[in-house]
Amino acid sequence: MNANLSETYRRNYDKDLRSKEFEQFFPLGNDLFIFASNNNRRDSMLELFAVKVDKASGSLSIRWQRLASFQQESKKDKIEFNLTYNTDSSKMVIVSGLPGKERNEYKAQDV
Where are the domains of the chain? Predict the structure, then answer.
């Protein structure tokens, strides 16, 4: 939608997301990004990917880029993460956590 709340384009990203799970849209500066995750069971990793969206057409302007990988020590580990802005909104921050009964691990990283 544009500033007047009129529809600019309509696009289905299911084909682009193949083998990834949609997480969220994320505007940063003048750009718009799609974030998706992939649970790599073979390596026990949760991977976070991003791709830039062309705001005029809705097409993806670059290939998926892996931003972060989170190691799972056991199959029961549920990694939680949140995407947010830094203090002046010029960068994105990934805050991740691995809550558990015996230990809690938290990590923040600028992207």
Answer: 21-110
